[in-house]
């Protein structure tokens, strides 16, 4: 039984080694009150009460893995700026290995600032450059990552379309990782899934799959399987794991299809839930479970974090409790 396997993983206490490669960012929140409009323009005046900073993008995936008990090496880019230093410091405080993070002086560290009045988000301000990574930085990052691949149990690509996963670097990474016999799970962005050719699992949501497959819609199982066929032809991927919001999660291979219903009974905030699903899938596959078993437990992990406000993480003990209650 799945619950027995999960208990065994917890009791064994073995920490899988997981390499996360992806777009790194900071989520910056400005909290305040807005009781009047500006005399300069018809916009609210926010009286700031507090500010908070959390890890975003691939850094949030890494934080989820640490919460579950994995050992994590994180690879990616930051700017040569104050925000880059802040991001690296937070990662190291979380126990995440930052040896494969390099600085790019041509771009700022990605920071998303959300201004909220009470519980209402008024505006989001993004500081970022999304141009493709320069070739010399590709070489530098690949060299660092090659030193880590042999020691890792599984590799994650967390693609937020911020310029790291150029087609060139993505294919060079895949070749180096496959050469070491390691599985790759991708959380994709953009329309060019051919750059992910020869990975193990791609995890799009319904909208991402619809756009990448150039499908008119995905409403039925037939629609989903037809769109998936397009991606299988482009990439040769073994599995697509498609998140379907309130309908749950579909595990699709070229020969099989399985729908896992959603586990959440109440939803407060879906922020970061995709990162949690990605992290949990990787953790449990690295722990020896099948793709179906890992997705089932990832579904429980997502149910836990969307019952909380903001980007949240969960633990193996909480996942076990959720499985026991279901």
What does this molecule look like?
With about 325 residues, this protein is α/β, with parallel strands linked by helices. The chain has a single domain (about 1-25, about 55-110, about 130-325), classed as Ribokinase (UDP-N-acetylmuramoyl-L-alanine:D-glutamate ligase, 3-Layer(aba) Sandwich). About 40% of the residues lie in helices and about 30% in strands. The chain contains ten helices and 13 strands. The protein has helices spanning about 1-10, 60-70, 80-95, 135-150, 165-180, 205-210, 220-235, 275-285, 290-305, 315-325; strands at about 15-20, 25-35, 45-55, 70-80, 95-105, 110-115, 120-125, 155-160, 185, 200, 240-245, 250, 255-260. Strands 5-4-1-8-9-10-11-12-13 form a nine-stranded mixed beta sheet, sandwiched between helices. Strands 3-2-6-7 form a four-stranded mixed beta sheet. Strand 11 and strand 12 form a beta hairpin. The longest helix is centred in the middle third of the chain and has 15 residues, at about 135-150. Keywords: Kinase, Transferase. It comes from Mucilaginibacter galii. This is Carbohydrate kinase PfkB domain-containing protein. One of its GO terms (molecular function) is heptose 7-phosphate kinase activity.
List the defining traits of the structure above.
alpha/beta, 9-stranded mixed β-sheet, Carboh/pur_kinase_PfkB_CS, 38% helix, 13 strands, 326 residues, RfaE_dom_I, globular, heptose-1-phosphate adenylyltransferase activity, UDP-N-acetylmuramoyl-L-alanine:D-glutamate ligase
